[in-house]
Amino acid sequence: MHRFKPQTFRWRFLKRLEHWCSKMIDEILSLVKKHEQWRGKECLNLIPSENVMSPAVRSLLASELGHRYTARDRFYMGTKFMDEIEQYGEELAKKVFGAETADLRPLSGHIADMIFLACFTKPGDTVMCISPEDGGYPGLWENGLAGLLGLKVYPTPFSRENMEVHVEKAKEAIKHVKPKVVIFGASLILFPHPVKELAPVACENGAIVGFDGSHVLGLIAGKQFQDPLKEGAQALFGSTHKSFFGPQGGIILAGKEHGELMKAKIYPRFVDNAHWNRIAALTLALAEMQSFGKDYAEQVVRNAKALAKTLHDYGFPVKCPALGFTESHQIIMDFGDYEEGRKVAEKLQKANIIVDCVVRLGTCEVTRRGMREEEMAKIAELIKRAALDEENPEIVKRDVVKLCSDFQNIEYCFK
Ligand SMILES: Cc1ncc(COP(=O)(O)O)c(C=O)c1O
Fold first, then answer.
1. 106 CA to middle of ligand 1, Å?
2. Per-residue pLDDT of the chain (415 residues; tens, 9 = 90+)
3. CATH number of the CATH domain containing 214
4. CA of 145 to the centre of ligand 1 (A)
5. Quick one: which of 5, 11, 238, 350 has the fewest CB in 10 Å?
6. Whose alpha carbon is nearest atom 7 of ligand 1?
7. Which residues contact 277 (CB under 8 A, 6 or more apart)?
C-alpha cells in the first residue's frame, strides 16, 4: 500500500513503476517457464555435453548455501556446515573415482583444465593434446588456455577415421617433442584413449599426464569406459554435468603428490568463493553415482550403440561402423562440414530434436529419463523422418512430444 494520496503525481508515478516492475518479473518468469516447458518437457535433448539432474540434486542449487562465502584462509565465519559438506563431497569423490585427492571447487571444466595446466607448466613449455580438428577441446589450444598461459601446443597424432590416437606415432612425438604435459580426453570421444600405453613414455620423458574427462566422467565413475588414474594419468579433471549427472561445474581428482600441489594453489589463484550450493548438489550427485552409476553408465553406452546402429542402417553417415560406432555416450555423424551439419541440426530443431552442429548425439539425458534400446529405435526413426525424409516438422514434433511425455521422471537416483 502506498502512503500517497490517490491521483497525486507521486501516486501515479509509483503506480506506473509498480506496473513496470511486475511486467518485467512476468516477462522473466515467463521466459524461464517457456524454456522449461520446451527443453525440459517437449524436446529430445541429445547434446552430449548436457544431462539432467535429479530433483533432489537440482533443489540443492536453490538452497541457502548459494548465498554464502567461505575462504581457505578462514576469513569468513559461519562456515561450519559448508566445511563439512566439502569434506563429505571430497571423500565421496575419492571413493567414486579411486583417487587419493579430490577437489570440488573448480567452477567449470574449463577452469579445472586451467588449474591443471597452470600448476604444471610455465610459459614456453609445450603441451601435447588432441587437436580441435580431430575433436580435441578447442579451449586448450592457442585461442584458449595455451594462448593465455604462453604455452606451445603440439597435436597428438590421431586417426580421424578411427577416432583413435596413433599410439606408435604418439610415442615418437613424445620422445621428440618432450612436452611438459600430455592431456588425453577430447570433446569428440568415441573410444578410450591409450593412457596405459603412453603414460609411461610420457613420464620417462619428463611429462605429467592429465586426462580431461569432461565428456566421459560419468562413464568413468560408472566403470564403463577407462580408468585414467589407474592407467597412469596423474590427474583426471573436467566438467561435472555432461555424462556425469551433477550440476554445471568442475572437479579435479588426482594422486597425492599432484593433487595436493593443485589443492594448495586453487585458492586464491583460480577460485575464490567456490559456490557452495553447487558443491552440495555435486556431493549428492556423487552419492547417486556411487549407488546407481554402474547401471546408468551401462545403459548410456548400450543406448548409444543401439542409436548409432539404427541411424547407420537408415543411411546416416555415422562414424566408425567397423569399430562398433562407439564405446561412449557419443555418436558422431559426419556430414562433411560444419555448415552441412548445421543444416541437419536446424531441421532437427524444428522437430524438437536438439543436437549440436558437428552433428554429435549423446544418450546421457534420454537414458536418465529412463529410455532404453526400444526408445533408441524410435528416436532414430524420428531423426530419419525429420532429417532424411523431410517430413513436415510439425508432424514429427507431435510424435517427439508424445514420446517425451512418457519419460518425464529422472531415473538412477534416490526416490
Ligand atoms: C573436453 C572438454 N573439456 C573441457 C570443456 C569445458 O567444460 P565447461 O563447459 O564445464 O567449462 C569442454 C566443453 O565442452 C570439453 O568438451
1. 12
2. 556 677 788 989 999 999 999 999 999 999 999 999 999 999 999 999 999 999 999 999 999 999 999 988 889 999 999 999 999 999 999 999 999 999 999 999 999 999 999 999 999 999 999 999 999 999 999 999 999 999 999 999 999 999 999 999 999 999 999 999 999 999 999 999 999 999 999 999 999 999 999 999 999 999 999 999 999 999 999 999 999 999 999 999 999 999 999 999 999 999 999 999 999 999 999 999 999 999 999 999 999 999 999 999 999 999 999 999 999 999 999 999 889 999 999 999 999 999 999 999 999 999 999 999 999 999 999 999 999 999 999 999 999 999 999 999 999 999 8
3. 3.40.640.10
4. 12
5. 5
6. 109
7. 60, 61, 62, 63, 65, 66
Domain's final residue, options 227, 257, 286 = 286
Record the cell numbers describing residue 407, joined without a space: 519419460
What is the chain's length?
A: 415
**347: CATH:** 3.90.1150.10
Ligand 1: residues within 6 Å at CB?
49, 108-110, 113, 137, 139, 185-187, 212, 214-215, 238-239, 250
DSSP 8-state class, residue 65: G
Same domain, 152 and 253: yes
Q: How many domains does the chain have?
A: 2
| Residue showing cell 579433471 | 237
* pTM metric for this prediction: 0.97
275 and 308 assigned to the same domain: no
Do 153 and 280 fall into the same domain? yes
Picking from 177, 178, 109, the residue whose alpha carbon sits closest to that of residue 144 is 109
Bridge partners of residue 239, in order along the sequence: 250
Which residue range forms the structural domain that includes residue 255? 56-286
Query: 237 CA distance to ligand 1 centroid (A)?
Result: 10
Q: Which of 137, 212, 358 to mutate to test the pocket of ligand 1 (most atoms within 8 A of CB)?
A: 137
CA 55 and chain centroid, separation: 19
